[in-house]
Amino acid sequence: MRTRRAIVGGLMAGGASMVLRPVHAVEQPNYPVRPVRIVVPFAPGGGADIVSRLLAPQLQQLLGESFVVENRGGAAGRVGTGLVAKSTPDGYTLLVTTESSLVIAPHIGVRMDYDSLKDFAPVSLLTRNTVMLVVHPSVPVHSLQEYIALARSKPGELFFASSGVGGPNHLAGEIFNRMTGLKITHVPYQGTGLALQAVMSNQVGAMWGFMAGLLPYIRQGALRAIAVGSKERSPALPDVPTVAEAGVPGFEAVSWIGMVAPAGTPGPVVDKLWGSVHKALYLPAVRDILVKGGAEVVASKPAEFRQTIDSDYAKYGKLSDLFKPTK
Fold first, then answer.
1. Are residue 113 and residue 146 in the same domain, yes or no?
2. Domain tally for the chain?
3. pLDDT tens-digit series, residues 111-135
4. Is the pLDDT of residue 23 over 90?
5. Which of 152, 162, 265, 266 fits as disulfide partner to 169, beta carbons 3.0 to 4.6 Å?
6. How far is 106 from 221, CA to CA, in rounded Å?
């Protein structure tokens, strides 16, 4: 009897320990075993949204489970980013965002419910993206010098749209103002898609945005390209000059898009995600579209992306005065 009780007691104790021990589906070697959510913290139509929707079907093909893109816009990316920060670190909720919500947001003087440096596990830097200036076709300018002259003739009367306060596009416009001495008023929107609608309907005459999201409308004639913020002209728009060569020496505006998971996501899961993302980005169905859209494919390893986040966090901290809303 004592032996039987010992056996039963041992089994019960073992069962209890199994119940108490946290078990994550991601610890299974065949991760993923259910659909994965990719949160884009911006409205549809922006660069992060485009990259995510290109990657999702390829990741599904490579990993055998659905990857579903979910747009959770608001507060220049902070709403969706905060949601992912609080998600279970099991590999089933990912974030694809720009530096806006990760390394700029902490410096704009607003309340945040996440820590950019502690609450995320980097998966991969995906792309670098040129920020560019476009105008509505009715704006009577065809070059950067003409745009500058128009702005000087109407101080405080011109406006530029962006995807939100504190984003890389807002930053590009404010740095342009500072370097030229102009007073072009910023009008923030909740995402590139809404900013695009405002410019194409001529509610706002101009905008700074990612080339990848603007290029289709430039080719359709719905927007007029004025200048690109990269150091060199883009192969996607070889006839459009850089801001620097068109009259503002030293100007540069290039952004990035990256994927992160909640902090604590198991290393093997992060590594498996990175391997699949790397493969997906270099598939012709993805890479060719991104490159033609003006993006540079990067696909850096998690540790390399961590270095980018840390260095850019420090860099934007020194420019925090530019991110404050215009009064």
1. no
2. 2
3. 889 999 999 999 999 999 899 999 9
4. no
5. 162
6. 37
- Residue 249 placed within a domain: no
Tokens of 249: 């020496």
Q: At what angle do helices 47-63 and 211-220 cross, to 10 degrees?
A: 110
Residues 277 and 263 in one domain: yes
**Cβ neighbours for 99, distance < 8 A, ≥ 6 positions apart:** 168, 255, 256, 312, 316
Range of the domain at 170: 130-228
Does residue 313 share a domain with residue 222?
Answer: no
Q: pTM for the complete prediction?
A: 0.74
pLDDT in tens, 53-88: 999 999 999 999 999 999 998 887 899 999 999 999
Q: Which of 192, 201, 199 is nearest to 44 (CA)?
A: 192
Condensed to tens digits (0 to 9), the pLDDT of residues 212-254 reads 889 889 999 999 999 999 989 998 899 999 999 999 999 999 8
Distance separating alpha carbons of residues 69 and 64, to the nearest angstrom: 16
What is residue 130's three-state secondary structure? strand
The angle, 0 to 180 degrees and rounded to 10, between the axes of the packed helices 47-63 and 284-292 is: 170
CA atoms of 225 and 132, how far apart (whole Å): 8
Domain contains 262: yes
Q: Which of 193, 228, 263 is where one domain is finished?
A: 228
Q: Are 324 and 109 in contact (CB under 8 A)?
A: yes
Structure tokens at 116: 């950019």
Looking at the structure, tell me whether residues 142 and 156 fall in a common domain.
yes
Residue 209 pairs in a beta bridge with: 132
The reply to whether 108 and 141 lie within a common domain is no
State phi, psi for 257 to the nearest 5 degrees: -125, 135
Q: Report the b/e string of 48-84 with b at 16+ CB within 10 A.
A: bbbbbebbbebbbebbebebebebbbbbbbbbbbbbb
In a domain? residue 175: yes
Report how far apart, in Å, the C-alpha atoms of 79 and of each of 40, 101, 279, 313 are.
Answer: 10, 9, 30, 19
Q: Containing H/E element for 121?
A: strand 120-135
Residues 211, 207, 324, CA angle at the centre, nearest 5°? 110
